[in-house]
């Protein structure tokens, strides 16, 4: 790359670090560190939610799907995000905010002790934390692929560079640093993506070339569902993303908890849903058009990077690379904050009873140490990503499949319709769902991608709802939690008081 491109990347990293240092002054306790003290404006959390929802995998794994199959990548990968987040704006976002407001929780899993019991909370916490290590590792690997194309940097060095910079700013500043850097990243990414789209349209013959592009693409590239991406796969993916993007991905629940009211949380989710509907189409247009403009790319994962190098002027190449960094750093930093919340608020107090009454200073120190450990371990796994199915294999085959068993008890436990689903339903659905995943993934030869994603999801959903119906576990404490997060709003005349934790 030209020195101007390096200057753009360096300036980007410097700004992220300065934001982290500025945010450090806003963090006085664990509530500030994990939920921004409930003081974040809805537009900031909405953009943060959106930016935390996808990574550089868009420019690597998903760009490869766009190159090989066309517009189907938008249909099955991103429309479900818009739909799921839009539904969650009414169903889940306000409930997460009420949890923070009425029970003073700082982790999305803290309420599970009240709603179910301690073993259920621990099962979801440990398995979810392990899953997140692999999820974030896939994001580091995505960035490393891009760096290798742009600069020739080795995969290992690329993973270490991105991880260390992310580690520095998110460790000192907590959720405020995450949200503010994600806003800055959104602006940078916007300039880079619009520049790339403009150049591609120019290569196609101007805006009018967009109308003729669809007739010039290879056969099947305009089909909404094609290849392994079937209607069954899409249906399962929609349901998975409904749970994942409304709290199953813990860092996204934190965005709703960080707003000042349930109404603001709903607005935050609505903004994120609108962005998921529009912005991925802008990001992926170059990759969809690539078979027309660059028909002989040997490795489709390099599509976006090769187009940027070939078409963009000096300076914009570096800005585009920074924009690609932005998505991964946004998601990874927010995941690290969420994992730190779960470990320090849910796991450590259960494992180390003395940790339940730690001082504010010690709690913050523990949160930062856990953040460092999580990012470090995920970078180690990223270096060995090929052993786990590569970037897309981890994101779709592992994360999408395992997310259902972990998130179903957590999300449905917030809803009145499932208030009689108790610890037995939660733990059994979790265990059988994960068991179903390992059976079809490693016990069946030639299981399709659809089968791998559908089996654990359907198993967990049926078992959870079925046991709640056939073997209900009515509990006054669980009913109180569900009633508290379902309303009414404070000031309406009905007071809701925190309930004691179960032993």
Automatic annotation (TrEMBL):
Domain of life, per lineage: Bacteria
UniProt-listed Gene3D superfamilies: Sodium/glucose cotransporter
Protein name: Na+:solute symporter
Organism: Streptomyces lavenduligriseus
Mode of membrane association: Multi-pass membrane protein
CDD domains (UniProt xref): SLC5sbd_u1
Parts forming coiled coils: none
Residues passing through the membrane, by range: 6-22, 42-67, 73-93, 158-177, 273-294, 306-325, 366-385, 391-415, 427-444, 450-471
InterPro entries noted in UniProt: Na/Glc_symporter_sf, Na/solute_symporter, Sodium:Solute_Symporter_SSF
Record family assignment: Belongs to the sodium:solute symporter (SSF) (TC 2.A.21) family.
Keywords: Cell membrane, Ion transport, Membrane, Sodium, Sodium transport, Transmembrane, Transmembrane helix, Transport
Keyword DNA-binding among UniProt keywords: no
Subcellular location: Cell membrane
């Amino acid at each position: 790359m030209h020195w101007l491109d390096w200057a753009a990347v360096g300036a980007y990293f410097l700004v992220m670090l300065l934001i982290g240092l500025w945010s450090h002054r806003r963090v006085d306790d664990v509530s500030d560190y994990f939920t921004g003290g409930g003081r974040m404006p809805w537009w900031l959390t909405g953009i943060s939610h959106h930016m935390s929802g996808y990574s550089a995998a868009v420019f690597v794994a998903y760009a490869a799907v766009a190159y090989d199959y066309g517009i189907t990548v938008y249909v099955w990968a991103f429309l479900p995000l818009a739909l799921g987040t839009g539904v969650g704006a009414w169903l889940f976002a306000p409930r997460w905010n009420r949890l923070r407001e009425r029970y003073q929780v700082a982790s999305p899993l803290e309420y599970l002790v009240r709603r179910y019991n301690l073993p259920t909370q621990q099962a979801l916490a440990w398995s979810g934390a392990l899953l997140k290590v692999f999820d974030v590792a896939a994001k580091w690997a995505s960035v490393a692929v891009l760096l290798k194309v742009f600069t020739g940097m080795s995969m290992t060095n690329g993973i270490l560079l991105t991880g260390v910079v992310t580690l520095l700013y998110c460790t000192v500043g907590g959720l405020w640093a995450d949200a503010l850097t994600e806003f800055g990243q959104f602006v940078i990414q916007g300039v880079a993506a619009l520049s790339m789209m403009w150049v591609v349209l120019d290569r196609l013959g101007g805006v009018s070339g967009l109308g003729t592009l669809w007739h010039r693409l290879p056969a099947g590239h305009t089909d909404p569902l094609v290849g392994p991406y079937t209607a069954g796969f899409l249906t399962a993916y929609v349901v998975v993303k409904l749970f994942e993007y409304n709290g199953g991905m813990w860092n996204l629940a934190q965005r709703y908890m960080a707003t000042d009211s349930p109404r603001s949380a709903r607005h935050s989710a609505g903004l994120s849903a609108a962005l998921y509907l529009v912005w991925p189409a802008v990001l992926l247009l170059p990759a969809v058009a690539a078979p027309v403009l660059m028909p002989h790319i040997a490795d489709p994962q390099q599509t976006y990077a090769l187009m940027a190098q070939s078409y963009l002027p000096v300076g914009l190449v570096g800005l585009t690379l920074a924009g690609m960094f932005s998505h991964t750093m946004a998601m990874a930093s927010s995941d690290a904050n969420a994992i730190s919340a779960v470990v320090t608020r849910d796991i450590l107090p259960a494992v180390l009873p003395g940790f339940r009454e730690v001082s504010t200073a010690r709690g913050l120190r523990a949160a930062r140490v856990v953040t460092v450990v999580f990012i470090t371990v995920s970078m180690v796994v990223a270096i060995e990503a090929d052993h786990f199915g590569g970037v897309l294999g981890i994101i779709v085959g592992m994360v999408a499949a395992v997310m259902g068993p972990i998130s179903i008890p957590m999300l449905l436990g917030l809803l009145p319709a499932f208030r009689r689903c108790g610890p037995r339903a939660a733990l059994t659905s979790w265990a059988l769902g994960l068991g179903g995943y390992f059976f079809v993934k490693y016990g069946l030869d030639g299981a399709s991608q659809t089968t791998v994603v559908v089996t654990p999801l359907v198993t967990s959903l049926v078992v959870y709802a079925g046991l709640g119906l056939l073997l209900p576990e009515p509990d006054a404490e669980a009913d109180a939690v569900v009633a508290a997060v379902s309303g009414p709003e404070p000031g309406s005349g009905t007071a809701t008081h925190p309930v004691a934790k179960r032993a």
